[in-house]
Amino acid sequence: MTKRTAAKYKIDRRMGENIWGRPKSPLNRREYGPGQHGQRRKGKLSDFGIQLRAKQKLKGYYGDLTEKQFRRIYGEAERVKGDTGENLIGLLERRLDAVVYRAKFVPTVFAARQFVNHGHVLVNGKRVNIPSYRVKEGDVIEVREKSKQMTVLLEAVQLAERDVPDYVEADHSKMTATFVRTPGLADVPYPVVMEPNLVVEFYAKN
């Protein structure tokens, strides 16, 4: 788990956006940044600042990945044929913790990482406890039998604030999900605008 888990709302406030679309986000009450200088008027961002912000927002959304992890995923997206930005989104959405989150087995992406870490998830019948494990199309993700009555699980399924996207088929009666296909940017239900093209520009220049 990242050190950011306890301070996840700071990411929202730092970005000035409710990036997970949560009802409890502090941005629903106040839109300025954290800390004693948070209410100062923000200056206009440079091109570098805009690109950096786009990268931090996307990186933060997936549980605030480390720069090393995110850079490695970006490197893979660059090597694959096709649009690098679209490839990046596809690779991020194929992370096991992201699929567990999308299937609504847990309420947050931070909880998804912890849920996988603690060994509650099977992929094609085998236990996998690595959040960054990359699922393939057709893989079946299942909550372990002993874990199916966990409160966090039962509460997450009832959450009305988000739906399961069409590239994941979830059966909440059996607590299973199938990763149907790798999504593109337009398929992913981000509550805020993500701009992977700016992330590509950022890494191209830095």
TrEMBL record:
Stretches assigned to the Small ribosomal subunit protein uS4 N-terminal domain: 3-93
Gene Ontology terms, MF aspect: rRNA binding; structural constituent of ribosome
Positions of the UniProt region annotated as Disordered: 19-46
Gene Ontology CC terms: small ribosomal subunit
Pfam families reported in the protein's UniProt record: Ribosomal_S4, S4
Record SMART domains: Ribosomal_S4, S4
SUPFAM superfamilies: Alpha-L RNA-binding motif
Keyword terms: Ribonucleoprotein, Ribosomal protein, RNA-binding, rRNA-binding
Record domain RNA-binding S4: where: 94-158
Keyword 4Fe-4S: no
Top-rank lineage group of the source organism: Bacteria
GO biological process: ribosomal small subunit biogenesis; translation
Cited InterPro entries: Ribosomal_uS4, Ribosomal_uS4_bac-type, Ribosomal_uS4_CS, Ribosomal_uS4_N, S4_RNA-bd, S4_RNA-bd_sf
Assembly: Part of the 30S ribosomal subunit. Contacts protein S5. The interaction surface between S4 and S5 is involved in control of translational fidelity.
Family statement drawn from the similarity comment of this UniProt entry: Belongs to the universal ribosomal protein uS4 family.
Listed HAMAP family: Ribosomal_uS4_B
Purpose of the protein: With S5 and S12 plays an important role in translational accuracy. One of the primary rRNA binding proteins, it binds directly to 16S rRNA where it nucleates assembly of the body of the 30S subunit.
NCBIfam families, alphabetized: PRK05327.1, rpsD_bact
Protein name: Small ribosomal subunit protein uS4
Lineage: Bacteria, Pseudomonadati, Pseudomonadota, Alphaproteobacteria, Rhodobacterales
